[in-house]
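Annotators were shown the component list below and the corresponding predicted structure, then asked to write short factual statements about the assembly.
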Amino acid sequence: MISFENSQYIRDQHKYTEAVALEHIRPVARYFDDHEHEEPWDFINFIWNEGRKTLKILAPGEENSEESFMLQMHVNEAISWGDMGFYMCLPYPSLGGTAITSTGTEGQKNRLIERFRGNKPTWTGMALTESHCGSDAMAIRARAVQDGDSWVLNGEKLFVTNARKSLDDSQGFLVIWATTDPAAGHKGIKPFLVEAGTPGVKITKLEDKLGLRSSDTAVLLLEDCRVPFENLLGGPDGTGFKGAMKTFDSARPAIAACGCGIARATLDFLKEKLAEEGIKIRYGLPRNLMTSLERDIVEMDAQLSAAWLLTIKSAWLVDQDKPNTVESSMAKAKIGEVASKITQKGVELLGALGYSKKTLIEKWMRDGRIIDIFEGTGEINRLVIARRILGYSGRELK
Ligand SMILES: Cc1cc2nc3c(=O)[nH]c(=O)nc-3n(C[C@H](O)[C@H](O)[C@H](O)COP(=O)(O)OP(=O)(O)OC[C@H]3O[C@@H](n4cnc5c(N)ncnc54)[C@H](O)[C@@H]3O)c2cc1C
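Structure shown to annotators:
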């Protein structure tokens, strides 16, 4: 049975993460929003040198709890309650690591853990999206050709989160999806591990973005980028494109938790401002007796709770090693809408103050928009849910 009671350990870790967010994130969140492409090194170094001693979930190989994914959701939520751009900067395996855990051999997983035991902050990322395809990931054109005991990669990847941190700022690596055989459709698509310093891979542009501006998102060019044969994740008989979908089963709850963090930050701030004006929310009153403002707040509370419950259900399934494709898409689709609605309402209810840069609410509205875009847009996640529930294949329901 799913339990709605968090363990004392999760409660303590969540509290600690919120304290980190208050001390190390909120005071500089505006600065890094105003200075995109500068990196929050004080925060990064703090997490690497100090934070990971308490938040062992951020130090791969150290955290060995049966509820480790659930714990991760609480940490993601609290960091993003501080600022989601900083969550994206965390020196820990994130999406690239998830791809390796979902598709790699035991040896490749150990290689990931070893990399995070070094002296300096390290990152990984994952590159799937290309200029002509994001949602339709099966249409990727980046090529991988076997040449002796190597794979040679060519192509261009767009919107690669943490590419700069993985390749230029650290001895990290990227998981790059490419096709070994365009005629084979999804069966030809495979994940390759590309290490920092590999000749033939370079960043050609850093994106200017609406939100998450403390996080780097890059365009990546692969020109005869040669990687050893063993860098094919999962080996020659690995999971292939199915591995990308398995990656999303874990990545979607992680992003959903971040969205819950942004939405909660907004609601907490709104309630604080209302309390300063002497306005109390009369919970429990029949709706017809409530003010319009009270109805708005109660509705937002309810929507956020629903999104959080879907998120923790999908996380619980991961910890139980049970399939969670439908649940993770449900969580992500739900919070994608809810985070946008709550942050927009926050700006609306605070009027000019909400629209000004005096508070972080307008920033949370911009940051929150991403939840419904990456790791599958809302429409794509609804398609995933519909296909699974109705029993249609991807070809039958597009
Ligand atoms: C800040 C940021 C970070 C990112 N990080 C990464 C990363 O690290 N790695 C990576 O590989 N990618 C990354 N991405 C890319 C992201 O995953 C894609 O933007 C996303 O998958 C959507 O693809 P697209 O932008 O090509 O939009 P499109 O796929 O062109 O979609 C455009 C619109 O059409 C809708 N649509 C598309 N297909 C359908 C359909 N079949 N039915 C109904 N509606 C449909 C979509 O929902 C959307 O509203 C990032 C993007 C951003 C903005």
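Statements collected:
1. Residues 95, 125-129, 134-135, 159-161, 209, 212, 217, 370, 373-374, 377, 379-380, 383, 398 surround flavin-adenine dinucleotide (CB under 6 Å).
2. Strands lie at 124-127, 143-147, 150-161, 173-179, 189-195, 201-206, 217-228.
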